[in-house]
Design a protein that fits this description.
Number of helices: 6
Structural class: alpha+beta
Shape: globular
Radius of gyration: 22 Å
Helix content: 10-25%
Bound molecules: zinc ion
Length: about 375
């Protein structure tokens, strides 16, 4: 495969370059260039993107890995790469009118950007691991942190790009939520807001993504037909997405998105994730954090039971008791002796590492391995 077909090298620079290329393509009417960038992005999303929407698999050069190299414990997923992904996705959305690009913005906002900054706004993640194996120390407020530090948000890094990038994104967030064309309004992201666009004034009320109901109240509308379009996320099916008519003042349009927790499985070509599963609710990726587990249950000993639907905030599984045999390899499959049933609490990935040092994992070893080992 030629390098021109997928993003490679330094993730943030590749995405910035692509965003600039979309601008050039739009300004000059270069459809070939636009299609080439869209193709590269599509392939990168299909093969080089973490579940969170984060990109980057190598700490060296802060770069993409080869296709399907997506190790959760070495995920780089720089905050700036999240910002740059949103910038590129939005440009492609505006250039093509394809609402699916809004899915990417949604995913990155809720799993990379929302994860980056501490609740008090005084520390942040530069990189976003998906698997923290060892609880790190609390970072001193007066010490510069190496930029690769994973387990705790740090007050400052030797490279400070992400801080400014998040500030810029938050300041311009409103530009990503709705668009207009001569026919009406398109809603791409859901948050409480007033939208003045497409000849209409709309009030949007929602607790998304904590809840799936989005209520739009028409404040002003012309006496001629308008089209109101909702982005229906890829994980949702069913709701009607396009409404075209003469809207009346105070009329309400309601969208209900299904927010049941669901299992997510990796492509089998992602070697680092084989045998694992994750849980998502709407656009939000969940994780298990050590601080929430039953006494003595370690995150490297759990197996989840994917034959049982995830509940809100927890999944069923087992605690295994791996034996130390002197080497991490044996001539037969390690038997999971006396697996104890456990409930494994989960929380949104963007909430992790907010209660002190902990271990964490997004991808959870799943039960088929246990069944195999019992039959050996
Ligand atoms: Zn950065």
């Amino acid at each position: 495969m030629r390098n021109g077909e997928v993003f490679h090298g330094h993730v943030v620079r590749a995405l910035y370059l692509a965003a600039g290329a979309v601008d050039v393509a739009v300004e000059t009417g270069d459809d070939e260039l636009l299609e080439a960038v869209a193709r590269q992005f599509e392939r990168t999303l299909a093969r080089r993107t973490h579940l969170t929407g984060g990109m980057g698999s190598r700490h060296l050069d802060e770069s993409y890995g080869e296709d399907f190299v997506l190790p959760p414990d070495r995920a780089y997923s720089e905050t700036c790469a999240g910002v740059a992904t949103i910038m590129l996705a939005q440009r492609l959305l505006l250039a093509t009118g394809d609402l699916r690009y809004g899915d990417i913005v949604d995913r990155v906002l809720h799993n990379v950007i929302a994860t980056a900054v501490a609740d008090d706004g005084r520390s942040f993640f530069y990189a976003h691991t998906l698997h923290q194996r060892v609880a790190t120390e609390v970072v001193s407020q007066d010490r510069v942190q190496l930029r690769f530090g994973g387990g705790a948000r740090a007050p400052w890094f030797e490279v400070s790009c992400c801080l400014n990038n998040v500030a810029r994104l938050v300041a311009s967030l409103g530009t990503y939520f709705a668009t207009e064309d001569p026919g009406g309004v398109q809603l791409h992201q859901y948050a409480p807001m007033r939208v003045e666009a497409g000849g209409m004034v709309l009030d949007v009320d929602t607790a998304y993504p904590d809840a799936g109901v989005v209520t739009v109240t028409v404040v002003e509308a012309p006496p001629t037909p308008r089209t109101l379009t909702f982005r229906i996320p890829e994980w949702a099916t069913g709701p009607e997405s396009v409404h075209r008519r003469v809207f009346k003042k105070q009329e309400q349009i309601r969208l209900e998105l299904p927010m049941r927790p669901r299992w997510t499985f990796p492509d089998p070509r992602v070697d680092a994730l084989r045998g694992c599963a994750a849980v998502e609710v709407g656009p939000v990726v969940l994780c298990a954090e050590s601080i929430d587990q039953e006494d003595g249950v370690r995150l490297d000993e759990i197996q989840v039971d994917t034959s049982v639907a995830p509940e809100v905030g927890a999944v069923k599984g087992h605690r295994t008791h791996p034996a130390d045999t002197g080497r991490p390899y044996q001539s037969r499959r390690a038997a999971a002796e006396r697996p104890d049933p456990v409930v494994i609490p989960l929380l949104p990935y963007h909430r992790w590492a907010r209660r002190g040092p902990s271990t964490m994992r997004v991808w959870l070893p799943a039960d088929p391995f246990e069944r195999v080992s019992r039959t050996v």
